[in-house]
Amino acid sequence: MLRQSLYLLALLPLLSPTAATAQNPNHSETTGNTTNPSAVCTPDRCLVGANSLTAGVHVSTPVNGTTWQIALLPGTYSPATSALRSDNTSADLSSVFSSQSAATVSTGFSASGSVDSSSASYIVSLQPGLTTYSSALYQDSSTQISPPQTASNSTASRFPPKVESLLLTSDTLAIARFANDKSTHMILWDSLYDAGQLPSGAGSGGLDILQVQSRACSPPCSSGGVCVADGTCICAPGFTGKICSAAKVPSRPGAQSHMLTAKSRRRLLERLLRSFLLTVSRRLYYL
Predict the structure, then answer these.
(1) pLDDT tens, position by position, 88-121
(2) Is the dihedral of CA 118, 120, 126, 132 positive or negative?
(3) Domain 130-218 coded CATH 2.170.150.70
(4) Is 0.90 topped by the overall pTM?
(5) What are the tens digits of pLDDT across the range 147-158?
(6) CB 176 within 8 A of CB 221
């Protein structure tokens, strides 16, 4: 949880062309006659200034007659939480816990507790799995994919194309390819704030997500098997075993297939050897 918060917070200066003004905690962004001050916070730090972040829980709260838009990143918040603004002056988040506050939980996040009570804590979490965004820096349209329960719901037909940024929890991995180069596949183990920053700029057209798997299988699945949330490998056709390492081979047309493992091969070899020795001994007897 802390890792994702710090990862997002480190990118906040990049979210707005007016990022330099975010160093002033009294700054607010004005459009026409409407003033819309905003901030992005973790439990121990807030950055004040305009941003277009989609990720997080977005709280609308009145402060001194002005409605603030505050994005809360993963962590535990309470009225007693002391947050450091960008100029290192102390500020608390008690204004978030107001009867007039309203919270909107974005795709891929969850929240427990309430922001309309001055006595409660409020916990923001990133949901297990993969959350994709149509723009870099976790902005614009988002889609959340939980770790698969079956092999069939881990495939690419469920995923939006040309993903520009994504959040991955530590229990999930994703298999992707460049939208502009479908011959190159990769395994993603961590969050990605901008696909265009990948080596050689190959990700400038975004990524196509092909598959999402759980990381609960140890050792990992082989032979194209899919790891699902309960730590089980769902094997591709033609393979079986705990990690899909054994091939299914039909014994004869129409017969039930059987598993050809090292143990079964050894037993088969032993039977063939005994049969051979028995045949030889019989021939020697009649000689």
Answers:
(1) 444 556 667 777 888 999 999 999 988 876 667 8
(2) negative
(3) no
(4) no
(5) 887 766 666 667
(6) no
